[in-house]
């Protein structure tokens, strides 16, 4: 099969992300990406300069996808506690099984190392927790910041699920967040 002459950056970055998920960020090399895409290593170096920039661009593209998915889900859920749960359960569906979740944690390390990618995470946190605040505003014990608390509960539930993944992640998350909302629905205001 002849070597392709070109490939859009989006496809190359998706291939780089897939390699990171499969083998870990440390194993992503221009040679591995060349083997996956059929482009020469020299061509890839010309386009991305170095491994750090390749990783940053691949993860920035992944953040773009997460931002889009989050916006789509936010637009589709009612601004109610049930909508908040549906939003976070919807975001949990992409984790799949335990192996996929573990692979994503390996990649998260790269997000935490890079200031640009950390800023993307902080921005996403703020958008997500703001919408969760809107959804939870009608609870008796609602207060500013409850959305961030719920997002933290969600992230914690993902981690606790990962130690004993006996049920699908979406089931575990929904049960955990339902208990969270019930606790604030019963609590007196003030």
TrEMBL record:
Which keywords are on file for this protein? Answer: DNA-binding, Plasmid
The record's SUPFAM superfamilies line, in alphabetical order, gives: Homeodomain-like
Give the HTH tetR-type domain ranges: 6-66
Q: Does the keyword Plastid apply?
A: no
Tell me which residues form the DNA-binding region.
29-48
Taxonomy, superkingdom = Bacteria
This protein is called TetR family transcriptional regulator
The protein's organism comes out as Ensifer adhaerens (Sinorhizobium morelense)
